[in-house]
Amino acid sequence: MPPPPQQRGRPGDGEPPAHHGTDQRPPAGARVWFRDGQVLLAPPQPAARTDRPTCTASLVSPGTELRQLLTGRPGVAKAAGYMALSASATGGVRITPDPHGGRVDPTDPDTLATTHGTQIAAAARFQLMAAIGLGERGLDPAAPAPVVLGSGPVALGAVLELLRRGAPRVDVRSARPWPAVAALAGVRVVPAVADGSAALVLECTGRRLAQALAAAAPGATVGLLGTPQADEPLDAPRVHRGALHVLGMHELAGRRWAERRARFQEIGDWLAAHFAPEQLAAWCHVTAGDRAPELYRALLAGRRPQPPLLLLDWSRS
Q1: What count of Cα atoms within 13 Å lies in the side-chain half-sphere of residue 188?
Q2: What is residue 155's three-state secondary structure?
């Protein structure tokens, strides 16, 4: 039997973590491990190399990580997380695809850096997903308001990117009564979306493809920003009859590293110019790293914190 979630100690020989849920890379000093549906916390390890500093915080991707937690191979431990934050040489923040609490590799080609602080880096990281997925697509100000399905970190990033691109209004369909995006100017949280009413729908949960297709007007674009569940059906006849454009929005498609780095800094500058520090702070829920198992247990039980951006603080853990 594996040790209980609160027990410290490396959970045994494990496989490398998934880099963005796809690629494999060896973990270095990973603190959070998944095994047999449990969350295990490992003690900090001394750095073996001075060029691999320990991350000070890390971002949780609830959908991806809970899926990995629940679908791992029996008896095999997996290092969790892929968005590690650390101080950059210029005094800002960089994000590397390293596990929670682990040591970071600043030379990784997917390292993202901003001259701004942790809160902006966290918001920009999820906004970047929508920015890359939408590409150079512009918004028609005369078209109906774009629709975002969801209210988690991916949805927050989608809303922010639509606002950055000049959308005068964004409609958000959320199961939560008071999602964080409700406080944003130009955002309207709606209980339902009329069938066939939207020219652009961004599905951010991976579980509402039917709702997204139903909301789309003839000729509309439906963006799949949240990772679709394997059993989530896509109604091909509806797509065909409605001349719908289904847009896959995985952020690493094509792996345009230079574009990603430039866009990340650009998004950070926009966030800093448009939102006060207290508003950025309201989007973030910070948990001490050594209490990570408690956070995952809450997420598994459906008790997600109200702020959409979930950060683990490793500066004192």
Answers
A1: 13
A2: helix
Q: List for the chain the helix, strand, coil content (%; round to 5).
A: 30, 25, 45
CA distance 151 to 204: 8
Q: How far apart are CA 275 and CA 34, in angstroms?
A: 36
Task: List the beta bridge partners of residue 238.
Answer: none
Could you tell me which residues are beta bridge partners of residue 190? 173
The CATH code that applies to domain 14-115+283-313 is: 3.90.180
What residue segments make up the domains of the chain, in order of their start?
14-115+283-313, 129-248
Query: Beta strand pairing status for 216-224 and 198-203?
Result: parallel
| Gap between the Cα atoms of 92 and 116, Å rounded | 5
Report whether pLDDT(242) > 90: yes
The predicted-structure confidence for 185-202, as pLDDT tens digits, reads as follows 999 999 999 999 999 999
CATH of 129-248, one of 3.40.50.720, 2.120.10.30, 3.10.20.740, 2.70.98.70: 3.40.50.720
**117 or 45: which leads in pLDDT:** 117
Residue with tokens 């969350």: 39
Whether the predicted pLDDT of 219 surpasses 70: yes
pLDDT given for residue 255 in this prediction: 67
Across the beta sheet with 187-190, what order do the strands follow? 187-190, 170-173, 147-149, 198-203, 216-224, 245-248
Task: Specify the pairing of strand 198-203 against strand 147-149.
Answer: parallel
Distances (CA, A) of 290 to 44, 76, 249, 315: 10, 22, 33, 10
